[in-house]
Amino acid sequence: MGAATTATAADRAKRARRKAVRDTRMSYLLLAPYLVLLVMFGIFPIAYAFGLSFFDTIEMVFWGFTNYQFVFDDFRVPASVVNVLAFVGIWVTMTMIGVAALSLMLDSINRKTANTLRTIYFLPGAVTSSAIVVLWLFVLDPSVSPFQPVLHTLGWATRADVIASVGLAGIFAIMAYFSASGGWIVVFGGALSSLPTEVMEAARIDGANRFQLATRIKLPMIWRSLVLMGILSFAGGLQLFVEPQLMGLAGPQFAQNDWSLNQMAFQYAFRMGDFGASAALSTLLVGASIVIALVIVFATRFYKID
Amino acid sequence: MHFKTLAALGGLALGAMAGPAMAQVTLNVWSDTPRLAMFDLYDKTHDNVTLNVTTVAPADLIAKIQLALQAKSEIPDVIFMSDIGYTAQLSTRRSNYLMDLTDKVPQALQDEFYPNGNSPCHVNGKLLCMRNDLAHMIVWYDKPAMEALGKAVPTTWEEFQKLGEELAPQGLSLGTGVEAFPLYAMLVSDGCDMVMPVEGKEDTVKIDLTTDKCLKPARMVDAMLKNGSLTKVGPFEPDFVALAKGGKIPLMIGPTWFGEYVIKPTYEWPAGKLAAALPLKWDDQSQPLTWSWGGGTYGAWKDTAHPAEAVDLVTWMSTDVANQTNAVTLPGHRPSAEAWGARLASDAYYADPNVFQVEAEAAQYSHPGYVSLRFSVSDAIAKVVVQPLASGGTVEGALPALQTELTNLAKLNGYQVE
C-alpha cells in the first residue's frame, strides 16, 4: 500500500515534470514566430547599424569614432535634441494626464456609453500617422479648418500664426496625442474593469463619491501601468519622424527636414549618402531607448509581482 | 580613301541588313509625371530602345537613388531631376551616380542653350546634366486690371514697392513675401552673396549677407509685408489662391512656369488677362539680375550598361525640337524654346502675344549664381527667415541667423566658405 502510494507520487512528479518540459517547449514554439521576426527586423538591423557606425561605408575601411565625431560636430544635432525633448515633454505629459483622466471618467459612467466612447477615441489611432498629419494640417489652417471660428477667436489668421503660437513641439504633440491615446484608453478600460469589485463596493459603502473613487482608489491601483505608458511613450517619442517630415506638405515654407533626431539620421543616409553617420546617430538613439528600458525594469521594479 | 569609303558603305549595308535583328536595348528611366509623355514619345520614335519608365515622386528621388546604389540593383539609367540641387547631391563621393557629359554632348549643342541655361548642370567645371526648362523670375500681371487701376507695370524694384504701397489700401497685393523661393529671388536681386560659387575655385562659395546688396532688398520685403502689399501666405496656400482667384493680386513676381502651370490651372484667371513683363532691376543696376525657381534637368548613370543610348536619351529629351514644343515649361534649348514660343503666341489665353518674347529676353538676365548646391538654401530660408516672420520677426533681423545657418550648412557639406 505504502509502496504503491510512493510509486504513484513519483509517477505523478515525473508526469508533472514532463508536462512542465512540454509546456516550456510549447511556449518557445509559440514564441518562435515572434523571435524570428525580432531577430530579422530588430536585433539584426541594430547589430548591423552598430557595426556600420564604425566604418566608412564607401571604401569599407574601419573609421573608429569618425562617424560619431561627425554627428557630434553637426550644428543641427543639438537643436534637434532640444526639439525632440520639448516634444516628448509635452506629449508624455498630455498623454499621462489625458489618458488617465479620460479612462477614469469612462470607468465611472454607464458601461454601454463608455464602450461606444472608447471605440470613438480609438478611431484616430486606426488611421496611420501620416494621414493624421495631413488631417491636422487642415484642422490647423484657419482658412479651411472646420474649427475656423475657434482659431479666429484666438487671433490666428494663417497657418503660420497657429504654428508660431502653439510651437512645432506642441503641434506634433497634439498630432501624436490623437493618434496614440485612443489605444491606451482602451488598454486602461481593460485594466480598470479588472479591478476587484469588492474594493469598489467597500469604498462606495464608506461613502466615496465617483471623484474620490477615481482619484483615491482606482488611480493608485493603476499607477504602475500609467508609468509604463509614460516611459514607453518617452522611448517612442524619441523616434519622432513622420510628423515633422510631412510638414512640407503644407507648403515648402513649413518644411522641417532636420527637426528631429530620426530625421537627421534619414538626412545623413538618404540625402548625403552617409550611411555610416546615419548608423552612428541611430545607434545613439537605440542606446538611449535601451537605457530607458533598463530604467523601467530595474528602477520601477516593473516585473515584480505583488 | 576609296577603301575606307567602301568599308564604310559596307558597314552601312551591314548595319541596314542587321537592322531588324539589332539588339534591343532597354533603359530604366525614373521620371516625374509631367515628363511621362515626353519619354513615351522617345520610346515610340526609337525602335532600338525600349524605355522602362517608373514614376518617382520628385521629393523622393535622392532617397530612392541612394537605396538603389546601396542595394546595387534597380539603378535607373536615366533620371529626371526636378530640383537643380540634385545634380550636386548625386555627384559626391558618397552618392556618385551622375555621368560626366562634358565630352559626350557636342559643344555646338551645348551652345544652343540660353545663357546660364545649363549653369545648374555644371559642377566643378563638368557638365553633369542637361537642362529641361528655364525657370527664371519675371513679372506676371493682369493686364485689364492694371489698366483699370490706371497703373503702369513697374520696371524697377523701387517702382514695385511704390505700386504696392499705393494698392495695399485697396486690399490688393503683389504676391507672396513668405514663400522661400520668391523671397530668395528678391534677396539676391541686387547681387547679394548668398551662397554664390567662386569663379575658378572648386567647391568654394561666398556667403556675405551683411552688405547693402542684401539689406536693401530685405528692407523692401519687410516694408511690403508690413503694409500688406506682399502676403503672409505662400502662393499655394488656400488663402492665397482665393486672393488670386478673386482678382486681389493684379501683379506678382513668378517663374516662367507660373503662367501655364499655376495661374492658368490653379488661380483660374480667365482668358485675356494674363501678360508678362521683364524682371525688375534696382535703380542703380544697369540691367535686371533675375533668380530662378526650379527648372528640371536630365542625368544619366555613370555605370550604365548602355552609355551611348543613355546619353542619346538625355540629349533628345532636352533638345529635340518636336518633343520640347509640346512641353508644359519653357525649354532651356533655344531652338526648342522658339518653337514652343510660336505655339504660345497662337494661344488666345494670354492678353499679350509677346509673353514668350518677354520670357526669352529675360533669360539673358538670368543669375549666373543659380547653380547646383549640395544643400538647400531655400530650406534654410524657410527655417530661419520665414518661420520667425509669423511671430513678429523681420527679414532684415533674420539675416545674421541665416548667414550662420548657411555657413554651417556649407561647411558641413564640404564647401570652403569665403
Fold blueprint:
The complex is a heterodimer of chains A (306) and B (418).
Chain A: H1 2-52, E1 55-56, E2 61-62, H2 66-73, H3 76-107, H4 111-126, H5 129-139, H6 148-153, H7 159-166, H8 168-193, H9 197-205, H10 210-237, H11 242-245, H12 261-270, H13 275-299
Antiparallel strand pairs in A: 1-2
Helix pairs in contact in A: 1-13, 2-13, 3-8, 3-10, 4-8, 5-8, 8-10, 10-13, 12-13
Chain B: H1 2-18, E1 25-31, H2 36-45, E2 49-55, H3 61-71, E3 78-81, H4 85-89, H5 107-110, E4 122-123, E5 126-127, E6 130-131, E7 137-142, H6 143-149, H7 157-167, H8 180-187, E8 193-197, E9 204-208, H9 212-226, H10 238-245, E10 251-255, H11 258-263, E11 274-277, E12 297-300, H12 307-319, H13 321-325, H14 334-345, H15 355-363, H16 377-389, H17 395-412, E13 416-417
Helix pairs in contact in B: 8-16, 14-15, 16-17
Computed structural class of chain A: mainly alpha
CATH architecture of the largest domain in chain B: 3-Layer(aba) Sandwich
Percent of residues in helices of chain B:
40-55%
Shape of chain B: globular
CATH superfamily of the largest domain in chain B: Periplasmic binding protein-like II
Order of helices and strands of chain B: HEHEHEHHEEEEHHHEEHHEHEEHHHHHHE
